[in-house]
Write a structure and sequence with these properties.
The complex is a heterodimer of chains A (74) and B (330). Chain A has 74 residues and is an all-alpha fold. Chain A contains one helix and no strands. Chain B has one domain: Farnesyl Diphosphate Synthase, CATH 1.10.600. Helix content of chain B is 73%, strand content 0%. Chain B has helices spanning 16-23, 32-38, 41-57, 64-88, 90-95, 111-132, 135-156, 163-172, 174-183, 188-211, 213-219, 224-228, 230-254, 259-281, 291-320. Chains A and B meet through helix 1 of A and helix 4 and helix 6 of B.
Amino acid sequence: MTDEPARRLTPEEAAARRSRNMWLAVVILGFMGVVMTITMVRLSEGTHREAEKREAEAANSPLAPRPKQKETEP
Amino acid sequence: MTGAPLGQIESKDMSLQDINAAGAGSISLATPRDYLLLMKPRIIQLVVFTAAAGLLAAPGGIDPVMGVIALLAIALGSGAAGALNMWYDADIDAVMSRTSTRPIPAGRVPRDAALGFGLILSGVSVLIMWMATNTVAAALLALSIVYYAGIYTVWLKRSTPQNIVIGGGAGAFPPVIGWAAVTGGTSLDAWILFAIIFFWTPPHFWALSLLANKEYARAGVPMLPVTHGAQATRHQILAYTVILAVSAALPILTGLGGWIYAVVSSVLAACFMFLAVGVLRSKAGEDDSGPDDRKAAFGLFGFSILYLFALFGAVIVEHGLGLHWPVVGA
C-alpha cells in the first residue's frame, strides 16, 4: 500500500478514460454476441445434420413403409 | 540519386526510451479512435475485400453468418498485426512526417498499451476464426499475423532492401484464409490469388518510396531507392509489373476468372504497364526530379490501389453474383 494521495484526474483525462471504458464495454458485449452467434449457427447446423441422418436411416430401414404397388385389375 | 550502402544508413531516431518516457506517469488521453488508428483501418479495407474474394470464389459454400464472422476475424487479425507493427516501429514512425502523427509517436497511446492491444487482438481474432470456421483458416490467420509483425516488421524491414518483396507475403494471405475458411484447405487457385497480391506489393510500395526516399533514409529503413538508387527502383517497378500482369492472367487459365475477370484484368494490366513505363521514363526519386516526375510516381501508387480493388472486385462480382462464365474449358 502506498502513502501517496491519489491524483485527481483532469477533465480531459476523465473524459478519455470514460470514453475508453464505454467502448471496451461495447467491444466485450460484441465479442459475447459473436460467440453466441457462432454457437447458435453451429447448433442449428448440428440439428439439421442429425435430422438428415435420421431421415436417411429411416429410409433404409426394413421397417420403413414401402411405396404402395399399383393395384392391377384381375 | 546514388544508393547508400546499408551500413551507412543510420537512423536519427527518437529513441524508444524517449517515446516510452513521454507517456510515463500520466493518465492516457487516448481515445477509442486512437486505438482504431493503431489497427490501420485503410489496410483493413483492402484485406477484407481480398479475403471476401477468396471466400466467394472457393468451391462449396459457407453459412453467410459464418462468412461474415470469418471476415470480421480477418479484419481483427489485420488490425492486430497493424498495432504490433506500430508498437515496434514507433521510433522510425516518429522520424518520418507521413507517420509522425500516428498514435504512439504523437504521444496519445503508450507503447506498452499498443503491444498489449495487438497481442490480445491477435489471440481474439484467431480464436474467433477457429470457432467460426476451421483449424486451417485459424492457423493461416495466425501465420499471417506472425509474418507481418515478426518476419516483416521486426526482421526484414530494417535489414534488407528486399523487405517489401518478401514482406509482401503477409498482405497476400487474406484470400487464402478466406478460401480455407470455406474449404478447410487451400488449392492452386487460392495460391494464385496469393501470388497476385505478392507481386503487386513491390510496385505499389516502391512507387510510394520513390516519393519518400529521403525520409526512409533519415529513418534508417533500407528501402530499395535508398540502397540501390531511384533508377534501379524504377526498373524493378516495371519488372514486377510484368510479373504481376502474368500472375493476374493465371486465373483465366485455371477457370477461376471468367470473361468479366479477363476483360477487367487485361485493361488493368495495360494501364498498370503504361503507368510503370511512365515512371521508368521519369526522374521520380532523383534529387533533380520535378513535379511531373513525382506526379508519375504518385499516379502509379494511386492506381495500384484501384487495380487491386478492381481485380478482386471482378472475382467477387463473378462468383458472388453468379456471373462467372469461364473463358477456358467453357
